[in-house]
């Protein structure tokens, strides 16, 4: 995702939507896109194994995250350069999310100043969380400057991306000749993104000591995004380095051949226990996928490309329509599974891709008197 600058730049979208070049950047994945595809198919390999006659009288999609209750268990994932998708870019996306109770994680590489997004989102009464994603480019003092800007503006957490020390444009983006204009708006960068040879990128790579340094100075809760290995999750918790973890492989945009996040999630949930909430992203394409993620132990999810598609094809109204549909579908799915709230979704409701003996699934369902239907 490191921008390259060139005169033959990918311009902001025409009224007909993003160009093929911009779409290649926005929707592409690393390598042969094995991880990108695996992310999508892994959620769908699970099937439900519900009990009947256990329909709850009420169903809510609300969740608790970092000490507050929010209307829905999802946030827009941080995504760079959304001006490529729609003229209203991150601002249009954030407003539509806020109006529908979805959270927003604004990217360091957003094309709108972080303060402008916060001013639009924070007054929305039914909004979800507002977090800022940090790529720690440049000197540590520059990172802190952006973190302080986010805190002053009213952001509620910093999401530190830890899975992309080295980034290249995807093969599709390269083949399409994708490049950003030299004057592309990047109002939230702490410093210019590292570029040049691999050796130059390696010198700038984030390490655990840097996370500890930031943790001590960050005035907001710190969320680590991009953890896949249970040992990393355990270390982050043991060392007190974060307030939440996002299981992510960057939507298959960085290292191809990583496991689907649906497969990584259960091990991380187990290694973290109740210490911090675990979130997940990658390949979630429907509310049914989200229900699987919640049943596997995610407290909430982040969604990327479906929102880009909605924004590019129908603007902020398209994003709002997507969230409304997902909200209805999630509550309907939960009702059919006998779950009154997301926290009631449980692995015992799932049959895993490797077939297990259903008679060994847990049998505990709370006993309840029959509720007459009115
Ligand atoms: C166009 C695009 C730009 C992205 N930019 C960022 C970014 O700036 N920072 C970041 O941490 N992740 C970034 N990501 C990764 C997303 O935050 C998220 O992990 C991923 O998109 C989730 O997978 P999904 O698109 O299948 O939902 C980007 C993803 C896309 C598609």
TrEMBL record:
<feature type="binding site">
    <location>
        <position position="133"/>
    </location>
    <ligand>
        <name>FMN</name>
    </ligand>
</feature>
<feature type="binding site">
    <location>
        <begin position="78"/>
        <end position="80"/>
    </location>
    <ligand>
        <name>FMN</name>
    </ligand>
</feature>
<dbReference type="InterPro" id="IPR037396">
    <property type="entry name" value="FMN_HAD"/>
</dbReference>
<dbReference type="Pfam" id="PF01070">
    <property type="entry name" value="FMN_dh"/>
</dbReference>
<dbReference type="GO" id="GO:0016491">
    <property type="term" value="F:oxidoreductase activity"/>
</dbReference>
<comment type="similarity">
    <text>Belongs to the FMN-dependent alpha-hydroxy acid dehydrogenase family.</text>
</comment>
<keyword id="KW-0560">Oxidoreductase</keyword>
<keyword id="KW-0288">FMN</keyword>
<dbReference type="InterPro" id="IPR013785">
    <property type="entry name" value="Aldolase_TIM"/>
</dbReference>
<feature type="binding site">
    <location>
        <position position="25"/>
    </location>
    <ligand>
        <name>glyoxylate</name>
    </ligand>
</feature>
<protein>
    <submittedName>
        <fullName>4-hydroxymandelate oxidase</fullName>
        <ecNumber>1.1.3.46</ecNumber>
    </submittedName>
</protein>
<feature type="domain" description="FMN hydroxy acid dehydrogenase">
    <location>
        <begin position="1"/>
        <end position="355"/>
    </location>
</feature>
<feature type="active site" description="Proton acceptor">
    <location>
        <position position="250"/>
    </location>
</feature>
<feature type="region of interest" description="Disordered">
    <location>
        <begin position="348"/>
        <end position="374"/>
    </location>
</feature>
<feature type="binding site">
    <location>
        <position position="253"/>
    </location>
    <ligand>
        <name>glyoxylate</name>
    </ligand>
</feature>
<dbReference type="InterPro" id="IPR012133">
    <property type="entry name" value="Alpha-hydoxy_acid_DH_FMN"/>
</dbReference>
<feature type="binding site">
    <location>
        <position position="248"/>
    </location>
    <ligand>
        <name>FMN</name>
    </ligand>
</feature>
<feature type="binding site">
    <location>
        <position position="135"/>
    </location>
    <ligand>
        <name>glyoxylate</name>
    </ligand>
</feature>
<feature type="binding site">
    <location>
        <begin position="304"/>
        <end position="305"/>
    </location>
    <ligand>
        <name>FMN</name>
    </ligand>
</feature>
<feature type="binding site">
    <location>
        <position position="250"/>
    </location>
    <ligand>
        <name>glyoxylate</name>
    </ligand>
</feature>
<keyword id="KW-0285">Flavoprotein</keyword>
<feature type="binding site">
    <location>
        <begin position="281"/>
        <end position="285"/>
    </location>
    <ligand>
        <name>FMN</name>
    </ligand>
</feature>
<feature type="binding site">
    <location>
        <position position="107"/>
    </location>
    <ligand>
        <name>FMN</name>
    </ligand>
</feature>
<feature type="binding site">
    <location>
        <position position="225"/>
    </location>
    <ligand>
        <name>FMN</name>
    </ligand>
</feature>
<dbReference type="InterPro" id="IPR000262">
    <property type="entry name" value="FMN-dep_DH"/>
</dbReference>
<feature type="compositionally biased region" description="Polar residues">
    <location>
        <begin position="361"/>
        <end position="374"/>
    </location>
</feature>
<feature type="binding site">
    <location>
        <position position="161"/>
    </location>
    <ligand>
        <name>FMN</name>
    </ligand>
</feature>
<dbReference type="GO" id="GO:0010181">
    <property type="term" value="F:FMN binding"/>
</dbReference>
């Amino acid at each position: 995702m490191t921008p390259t600058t060139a005169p033959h730049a990918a311009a902001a979208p025409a009224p007909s939507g993003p160009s093929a070049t911009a779409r290649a950047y926005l929707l592409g994945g690393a390598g042969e896109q094995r991880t990108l595809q695996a992310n999508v198919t892994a959620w769908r390999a699970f099937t439900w194994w519900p009990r009947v006659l256990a329909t709850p009288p009420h169903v809510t999609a609300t969740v608790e995250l970092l000490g507050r209750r929010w209307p829905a268990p999802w946030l827009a994932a941080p995504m760079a350069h959304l001006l490529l998708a729609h003229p209203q870019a991150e601002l249009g996306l954030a407003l539509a999310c806020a109006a529908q109770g979805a959270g927003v994680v604004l990217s360091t590489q957003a094309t709108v100043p972080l303060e402008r997004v916060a001013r639009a989102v924070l007054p929305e009464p039914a909004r979800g969380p507002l977090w800022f994603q940090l790529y720690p480019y440049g000197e540590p003092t520059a990172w802190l400057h952006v973190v302080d800007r986010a805190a002053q503006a009213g952001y509620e957490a910093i999401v530190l991306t830890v899975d992309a020390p080295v980034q290249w444009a995807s093969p599709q983006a390269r083949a399409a000749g994708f490049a950003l204009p030299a004057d592309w708006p990047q109002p939230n960068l702490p410093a210019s993104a590292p570029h040049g040879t691999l050796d130059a990128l390696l010198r700038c790579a984030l390490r655990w000591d840097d996370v500890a340094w930031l943790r001590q100075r960050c005035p907001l809760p710190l969320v680590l995004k991009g953890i896949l290995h249970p040992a990393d999750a355990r270390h982050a918790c043991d060392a007190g380095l974060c307030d939440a973890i996002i299981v992510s492989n960057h939507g298959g945009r960085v290292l191809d051949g990583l496991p689907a996040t649906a497969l990584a999630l259960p091990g991380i949930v187990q290694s973290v226990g109740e210490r911090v909430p675990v979130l997940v992203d990658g390949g979630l394409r429907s509310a049914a996928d989200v229900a699987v993620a919640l049943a596997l132990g995610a407290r909430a999810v982040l969604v990327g490309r479906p929102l880009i598609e909605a924004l590019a094809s129908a603007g902020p109204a398209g994003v709002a329509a997507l969230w409304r549909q997902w909200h209805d579908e999630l509550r309907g799915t939960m009702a059919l599974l006998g779950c009154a709230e997301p926290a009631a979704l449980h692995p015992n409701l799932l049959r895993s891709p490797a077939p297990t003996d259903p008679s060994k699934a847990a049998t505990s369902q709370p006993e309840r008197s029959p509720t007459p239907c009115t």
